[in-house]
Automatic annotation (TrEMBL):
One protein family per Pfam: VTC
UniProt-recorded name of the protein: Polyphosphate polymerase domain-containing protein
Domain of life: Bacteria
Coiled coil: none
Stretches assigned to the VTC domain: 8-229
InterPro entries, per database record: VTC_domain, VTC_sf
Length: 237
């Protein structure tokens, strides 16, 4: 029996370097850093996003469809000890995530077009992906690459992340490619602030963030990075 989905609030903002330093300084005394960070207080994330033959995920996001989903394979610090195939689900202003671990061999098979490794009836996400790849031609589209500085708080299960140096792998779809030289996807001065929580944000964290002074954005990393792969002049996103 599959686990019920846990939906969470997700807010996204573009902030500049000055705002980043101020907000981070306030949060440091109120929240703990994620236990997975390295000595710099950060870790590296690289994701391979998938879309189908009609680019459904891309067009639904651009079209403002409120209920939608995305598929991606994610790794950390360009290591293969943790590889997950993830399905991110958005319902109105709430998000949920379903994921399954992959071995490096499974990853290599999927990227090479051998989808039989996903034909596992005991794993619903794999069977869903297997169907999408065979019937809707779900395929790798773009690599999204960035540095994350994360903070967590038990009260409200709040997670606040600063995502920096957003880059795209352009036409390379191998996240382990050592020759990949990702190119910057947004302005040097911009950082993506993400705020995720369950039922509430503690008032002391809300006061530190001063969210009312920030401009909320959709800030889809997938869409931002896909714009570098335009083949037609009408693809103005």
């Amino acid at each position: 029996m599959s686990k019920p989905l846990k939906y969470r609030h997700e807010l996204k903002f573009f902030i500049n370097q000055h705002q980043f330093y101020i907000i981070r300084q306030r949060l440091k005394s109120l929240m703990k850093q994620d236990e997975n960070v390295g000595p710099s207080g950060e870790y590296h994330i690289r994701s391979l996003y998938f879309d189908d033959i009609s680019n459904k995920a891309l067009h639904e996001k651009l079209g403002g469809v409120r209920d939608r989903l995305k598929y991606r394979i994610r790794i950390y610090n360009i290591q293969d000890n943790v590889i997950h195939f993830e399905k991110k689900i958005k319902r109105n202003d709430f998000i949920a995530k379903v994921k399954e671990p992959l071995s490096r061999d499974m990853y290599e098979a999927i990227v090479a077009g051998n989808f039989e490794v996903l034909n596992d009836p005991d794993k619903p996400l794999f069977m869903e992906l297997y169907h999408e790849m065979n019937h809707n031609l779900l395929r790798p589209k773009v690599v999204v690459d960035y540095i994350r500085e994360p903070y967590v708080c038990y009260n409200g299960n709040v997670r606040i992340t600063f995502d920096k140096d957003l880059r795209t792998g352009l036409h390379s779809v191998d996240i382990f490619n050592k020759e990949m030289d990702p190119v910057r996807a947004i302005d040097n001065n911009l950082i993506i602030l993400e705020v995720k929580y369950d039922e509430y944000i503690p008032e002391y964290i809300r006061a530190a963030l001063q969210l009312e002074g920030l401009h909320r954005q959709s800030a889809s990393k997938y869409v931002i990075c896909r714009k570098f792969l335009k083949f037609n002049t009408w693809e103005d996103y």
